[in-house]
C-alpha cells in the first residue's frame, strides 16, 4: 500500500511522536549527524500532513541504552501516550532507536495495533495492524537485537583476549600506577608505599580489619586514597570498608585479576554487582606485577577474614582484643562442645568477665548450658602458664616487646612522611604567592590564604608527631627497656605486669595453649579446667566458683554449729556477746557499708529459727525444767513463795531469754514449806549450801 494512503484523517487528528535517542553520552557529543538525521524526521511528519504544533519530540533518553525500557522514562512516556490513543504515528530513525529488546519492541507493536497508531522509520510507514507490516517490523526488531548482541560479543571478545594476557588496563587501586610503558608499578610516593606496607603489617599483627582501623585511629595515621579518574591523592581516616576492600583485592599481592564481580540489571534498571567465587574469576594471574605482599600472604589474610566472620556454631580463632577475659576464642563448653561466648558486666564499680554458653537457648529456647565466672578460671590458667613457661617462651615474650617498639618506630616514620609532604605543599604555596603581582590583590589574597592553610596543616602534623612521641616515650626510654630486660628473667612478673596490655597477654597464651574446656560442677562449687597445649600435652585444673550474693551473706556452717552448742547453756543475748568477743561477724557484713554490724539477740534468734536449731526453751524442757506455775504446783506453794525460794537459792531457775525462766525442781528431797518464824529462809539457804559442799567433798 502507498505510504500516503496509510495515513488517514483520524491519524492526522492525533499527535505525531518523534523519538530521539543515542546509546551513550559520547555518541551524543560525537555522532552529531545521527542526531540531526533523527530530528529531521519532523519534516517527514509535516509532509504527511501533521502541523508543527502537533509534533511531539521525546529526547529525554539521550545517552541511555536501548537494551531495556526499565530505565528509559522517555520510552515509557511514549508507550503510555500510544496506549491512551494520543499518538497517530510514532517516528524513529530506525527500529534500534526505539528498542533493542524484542520484548519491549513487540509490546509497542501490540499497543500500536490496538490503538491504530502508525510507525515510521527511514525506510517507510508501517501499520502494525497489517500482518505484512507487522511481520516486517518483527524481523527488523529481531535483527536490531541480534546486532546489539554481535556488537557486544565482538567488544567483549577483544577485552577478554587482552585480559587472558593480563594486558587489559583496569582502574588501579591506591598504591599502584601505570608507567610510561603501560606496566603496573608501585606508587612512586614513598609515603603512600610505607603507609600501605604498615597497613598489611598491622593486620598481620592484630588479625582483624576493625582492629587495624583502631590502630590507625589511635596512632593518628591517615590512609591515602586516590580519587576515581583523578591523578591527585587525598589522605583521610581509614575506615573498615576501605580496610576490607584492600584486604580482598588481589592486586596488592601482585596478581592481575579481572571479573571478580558480575553485574545484573533489575526490573527497575539498577545494576546490582554480585561477587563471583574465586574459581570463577575470568582471569587471575599471580606475580603479574610488583605487590605489597606475597600471594601466600594474601591467601592467609583471606582465611583470617573468613574465620573472623564465621559463626559460633563452628570453631573459630578469634583475634585477641582488649577485654580482660584471657581465654577469648579458646574456651570450649565441656557439655555441648560449642565455643563459649564472652559477657562483660560492671558490678560494684568493677568489670567482671563471664564465659557463657547460651546459643541453644537463643536458637531453640533450651535452658542455658553453662555460665562461668572468668576471674578464677583466668587466674588458674595464668598460674599454669607461669609454671609451664620455658626459656624459649620467655624469649618470645621479649620479642613481642621489641615488636611493639618497632611498630612505634614505623608509625613515627609515617608521621615524618606526612610532615615532609605538608612542608613541600607549604613551600609550593609560598613560591606561588611570591611570584604573583602584588597589585593584583584578588589573586594575591587567594594565594596568601592558601599559603596560610598549608602552614596550618604543617603545624598540625608537627604537633601530632610531638604528642605521639610523648605518649610513646615510656616505651622507648632506656630505663624502661632495662626494666623489661630484667622482667624477662622472671616471666611471672611480666605476666602480671599491669602495663602489659590484655591483647599482648592473649598473644602469649596463643603460642602455648590450643584450647581450654570448662565443666562447671555447681554441687561441688568448682569448675574443672582441661587445658590442651599446642604440643598435645593436657592438664586438668580445678577452680573454686565465686560465691553468689546470697552465699556471701550466708552465715558460715561452723558459726551455726557454735551457736547450736552455746544454746545449751546460754541465751541469745549471751551468745551474741560471746560471738562478738571472739571477733565473729554476721554474713551481712560483706555488703557495702555494713562492715561494722555485730551480732545481737534478735539476729541469733533468727539464725536459730531459720536453720532449724532447737530453741533454748525446748532444750531446758527436755532436761525436766518446769514453768513457774508447774513448779509452784509440784511444791505445793504459791508462785510468790517460789520466787523468794529462788532468791535464797533453794530452787534454781534457768533463763531461756532476757525476761523468762524455767525452774529446776529436784526429784529427791525437794524443799518443803516451813514456818518462817522458827525456820528462817536464810538459815535454810545456809544449810542447803553446806549440804551441797559436804557432798562435793
TrEMBL record:
Domain of life: Bacteria
PANTHER family (UniProt xref): DNA RECOMBINASE-RELATED, DNA-INVERTASE FROM LAMBDOID PROPHAGE
Recombinase domain location: 173-311
GO function terms (MF aspect): DNA binding; DNA strand exchange activity
Alphabetized Pfam families for the sequence: Recombinase (PF07508), Resolvase (PF00239), Zn_ribbon_recom (PF13408)
SMART domains hit by this protein: Resolvase (SM00857)
Domain Resolvase/invertase-type recombinase catalytic: start-end pairs: 15-166
PROSITE patterns: RECOMBINASE_DNA_BIND, RECOMBINASES_3
Name the UniProt record assigns to this protein: Recombinase family protein
InterPro entries: DNA_bind_recomb_sf (IPR038109), DNA_bind_recombinase_dom (IPR011109), Resolv_N (IPR006119), Resolvase-like_N_sf (IPR036162), SSR_resolvase (IPR050639), Zn_ribbon_recom_dom (IPR025827)
Amino acid at each position: 500500500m502507498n505510504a500516503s494512503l496509510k495515513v488517514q484523517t483520524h491519524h492526522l487528528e492525533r499527535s505525531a511522536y518523534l523519538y530521539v535517542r543515542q546509546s551513550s553520552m559520547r555518541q551524543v557529543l560525537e555522532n552529531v549527524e545521527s542526531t540531526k538525521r533523527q530530528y529531521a524526521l519532523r519534516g517527514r511528519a509535516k509532509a504527511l500532513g501533521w502541523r508543527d504544533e502537533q509534533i511531539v519530540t521525546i529526547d529525554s533518553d539521550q545517552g541511555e541504552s536501548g537494551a531495556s525500557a526499565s530505565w528509559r522514562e522517555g520510552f515509557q512516556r511514549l508507550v503510555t501516550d500510544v496506549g491512551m490513543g494520543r499518538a497517530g504515528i510514532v517516528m524513529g530513525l530506525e527500529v534500534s532507536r526505539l528498542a533493542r529488546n524484542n520484548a519491549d519492541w513487540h509490546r509497542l507493536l501490540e499497543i500500536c495495533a490496538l490503538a491504530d497508531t502508525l510507525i515510521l522509520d527511514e525506510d517507510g510507514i508501517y501499520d502494525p495492524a497489517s500482518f505484512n507490516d507487522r511481520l516486517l517490523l518483527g524481523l527488523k526488531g529481531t535483527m536490531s537485537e541480534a546486532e546489539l548482541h554481535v556488537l557486544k560479543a565482538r567488544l567483549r571478545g577483544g577485552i577478554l583476549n587482552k585480559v587472558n594476557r593480563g594486558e587489559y588496563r583496569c582502574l588501579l587501586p591506591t598504591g599502584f600506577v601505570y608507567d610510561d610503558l603501560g606496566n603496573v608499578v608501585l606508587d612512586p610516593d614513598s609515603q603512600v608505599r610505607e603507609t600501605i606496607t604498615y597497613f598489611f603489617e598491622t593486620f598481620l599483627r592484630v588479625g582483624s580489619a576493625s582492629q587495624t582501623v583502631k590502630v590507625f585511629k589511635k596512632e593518628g595515621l591517615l590512609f591515602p586514597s586516590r580519587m576515581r579518574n583523578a591523578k591527585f591523592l587525598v589522605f583521610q581516616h581509614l575506615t573498615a570498608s576501605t580496610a576490607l576492600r584492600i584486604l580482598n583485592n588481589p592486586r596488592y599481592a601482585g596478581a592481575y585479576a579481572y571479573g571478580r564481580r558480575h553485574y545484573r540489571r533489575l526490573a527497575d534498571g539498577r545494576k546490582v554487582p554480585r561477587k563471583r567465587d574465586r574459581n570463577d574469576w575470568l582471569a587471575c594471574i599471580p606475580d603479574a606485577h610488583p605487590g605489597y605482599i606475597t600471594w601466600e600472604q594474601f591467601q592467609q589474610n583471606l582465611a583470617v577474614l573468613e574465620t573472623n566472620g564465621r559463626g559460633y556454631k563452628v570453631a573459630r580463632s578469634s583475634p585477641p582484643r582488649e577485654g580482660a577475659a584471657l581465654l577469648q576464642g579458646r574456651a570450649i563448653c565441656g557439655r555441648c562442645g560449642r565455643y563459649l561466648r564472652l559477657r562483660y558486666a560492671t558490678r560494684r564499680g568493677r568489670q567482671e568477665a563471664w564465659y557463657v554458653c547460651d546459643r541453644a537457648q537463643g536458637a531453640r529456647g533450651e535452658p542455658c548450658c553453662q555460665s562461668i565466672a572468668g576471674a578464677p578460671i583466668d587466674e588458674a590458667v595464668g598460674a599454669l602458664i607461669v609454671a609451664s613457661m620455658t626459656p624459649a617462651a620467655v624469649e618470645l615474650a621479649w620479642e613481642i616487646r621489641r615488636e611493639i617498639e618497632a611498630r612505634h618506630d614505623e608509625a613515627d616514620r609515617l608521621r615524618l612522611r606526612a610532615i615532609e609532604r605538608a612542608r613541600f605543599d607549604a613551600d609550593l604555596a609560598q613560591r606561588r604567592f611570591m611570584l604573583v603581582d602584588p597589585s593584583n590583590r584578588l589573586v594575591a589574597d587567594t594565594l596568601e590564604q592558601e599559603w596560610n592553610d598549608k602552614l596550618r596543616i604543617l603545624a598540625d602534623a608537627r604537633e601530632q608527631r610531638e604528642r605521639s612521641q610523648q605518649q610513646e616515650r615510656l616505651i622507648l626510654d632506656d630505663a624502661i627497656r632495662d626494666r623489661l630486660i630484667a622482667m624477662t628473667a622472671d616471666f611471672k612478673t611480666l605476666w602480671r605486669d599491669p602495663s602489659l596490655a590484655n591483647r599482648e597477654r592473649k598473644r602469649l597464651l596463643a603460642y602455648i595453649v590450643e584450647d581450654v574446656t570448662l565443666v562447671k560442677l555447681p554441687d561441688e562449687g568448682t569448675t574443672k579446667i582441661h587445658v590442651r597445649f599446642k604440643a598435645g600435652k593436657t592438664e586438668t585444673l580445678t577452680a573454686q566458683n565465686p560465691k553468689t550474693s546470697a552465699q556471701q551473706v550466708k552465715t558460715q556452717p561452723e558459726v551455726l554449729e557454735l551457736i547450736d552448742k552455746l544454746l545449751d547453756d546460754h541465751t541469745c543475748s549471751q551468745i551474741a556477746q560471746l560471738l562478738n568477743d571472739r571477733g565473729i561477724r554476721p554474713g551481712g557484713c560483706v555488703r557495702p557499708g555494713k562492715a561494722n554490724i555485730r551480732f545481737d539477740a534478735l539476729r541469733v534468734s533468727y539464725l536459730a529459727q531459720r536453720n532449724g536449731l532447737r530453741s533454748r526453751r525446748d532444750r531446758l524442757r527436755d532436761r525436766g525444767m518446769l514453768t513457774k506455775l508447774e513448779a509452784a504446783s509440784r511444791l505445793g506453794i504459791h508462785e510468790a513463795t517460789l520466787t523468794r525460794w529462788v532468791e535464797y537459792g533453794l530452787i534454781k531457775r534457768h533463763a531461756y531469754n532476757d525476761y523468762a525462766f524455767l525452774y529446776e525442781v529436784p526429784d529427791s528431797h525437794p524443799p518443803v514449806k516451813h514456818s518462817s518464824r522458827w525456820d528462817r529462809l536464810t538459815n535454810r539457804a545456809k544449810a542447803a549450801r553446806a549440804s551441797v559442799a559436804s557432798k562435793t567433798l
